[in-house]
Amino acid sequence: MKKIILSIIGIIAIIALALGIYIYPLAFSKCDDDTMIFIYPNMTNDQLADTLKSRLGNEFGDHTITTLNLLKSDITQRVGAYKIPKGSSPYHAARLLQRGAQTSIRFSFNYVRTVDQFAERVSQRLLMDKEDLLTLLTDAEFCKKYGKTPETIVSIFQPDTYDFFWTVSPKAFVDNMFRYYNLFWNEERLAKAKALGFTPDEVVTIGSIVEEEIAKREEAGKVARLYINRIQKGMLLQADPTVKFALGDFKLRRIWSSMLSIDSPYNTYRYKGLPPGPIRFVEKRTLDAVLNAPSHPYIYMCAKEDFSGYHNFTASYAEHKNNARRYQRELNRRGIKK
Prior knowledge:
It contains 14 helices and six strands. By secondary structure, the chain is mainly alpha-helical.
């Protein structure tokens, strides 16, 4: 009898040892930091294992893989992004992946000029092919669903930080951005645009020119009002940034008279009114600067010759010519040719 009891105790001890060696780490070891796990389409089990070990560390990754095997879970089909919170056990991590409950990804963007640049930014952050998004944004029928054209579709994408699932489709992505756009264009802002005589898209187009013009944020409203004044007087906008857009070269620091003849609807030295659409993606604060632009009589401006980033404003063409000559002399002195 004593031998039987000793044998049972031995077996219990072996089981307890096994539990301590194999099971305890699976349930009670901890993830050191918040960690994102990305499961790509057509990922193999070996690739998934490598990902878990590289992202979670070899030991914790191995424990998570072991737990998934014990749970008989093949998560290679759970395409998505999953956050493993700091302090999670391998069992908790495995269950998060097994459930397939994705974590949203923070997508931020600013300083974007072209649709191509934007599609590239999106594809770098989300599981979306750049060309798939570009195809939609350049398709007239698709844009029409949002009341836009391929030239104005950029107006719905306002630089900011947004939450998306990593696997969001191009269409669902645009739908969500359009929802945010409509939240911005509330009744108050729509009324302000109407009072100025502009549609929201026209406000965005003005804002895009303003953003390209200013180096000092505090001048945004002043520059916006200058262009509004020119439009209301039926004058050509004569905005250098639109020429840069037409030429496809925003690095130009100097616009020569020979450049002003380019035949493009974006060339506001040649065509009256606003160009067909925005020349960049516009920040919300710039749109508000346009909508709340303070009144003034100025219709001319020129960068200050001290290169401070500020402008000289005037309602006098003769004074404007003098301002321009001083600035051009400084460009020459500094050897700036383009």
